[in-house]
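This section describes the prediction task in plain terms. A model, or a person checking by hand, is given the sequence of a single protein chain and must write out its three-dimensional structure as a string of tokens. No templates, partner chains or ligands are provided. The sample shown here is typical of the held-out split.
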Amino acid sequence: MDNTTDISFEGTTTILFLYFLKLAKQVLARVKKRQKAASQRNTTTELNDLLEVYVLVAASLEAFINDFCQHKIDEIKWTGEKAYWLRGLEEIIDQRVEIKLKWRLVPQLLWQKAFDESQPPWQDFNVLIYLRNWLLHYKMEYLPPGKVPRPLGHIKRLLSSELQYTKEPYTLTEALKRSETLIDRICNLEMAQWAFNTGVKMIEQFLEFADQESRDNYAWLLQGFGITLIADDKRSKRKAP
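The expected answer:
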């Protein structure tokens, strides 16, 4: 017997993006704890769990933009008012529209605002989506020793030399040089925290463009789920007395 008609999605879509972010944050906390225990025992710890973070954060950003559009569509249809952007939003939430295009078009349609694509967080968002796509559509690449894989080279070109996550002269580009293997270069806490923070910053800047009611509603949801930027551990320790 097919019971799918009994499934209700009411109230689910609004917080789906928050669940993805919360899951990513839990992965980071789990890996931090394991890494700390390993360092105390003078052993190594596997970090491959961090691959989940890139996929979860990207999924959260797609869920957020789709949900926001749907709410705006439902809102205008409920009031019976006319809006020039209605047809545009209906086309944007189509799954065939690429995620970066959705984030580019929605603030332009609704508020005539746009991200500065030469600066963070959009610049980071661009790298994150490239990385997510590469992981989900992975292709084996055989290379001679010392040759940088094409995806890694592309990520390094996209990353700004000014993208620092500590006060020390240390950037994500440097993090990508620390290991001989591609997965190890990606699976480090600094990069995973950067990915999580990129997701949060994209949502925060989008809400800066938005109307006051939307800002208040989503700020309340983010606060309720405990979704905030993750501070750098080294920076926190430097601030301690």
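For orientation: The chain has one domain: 13-138+191-239.
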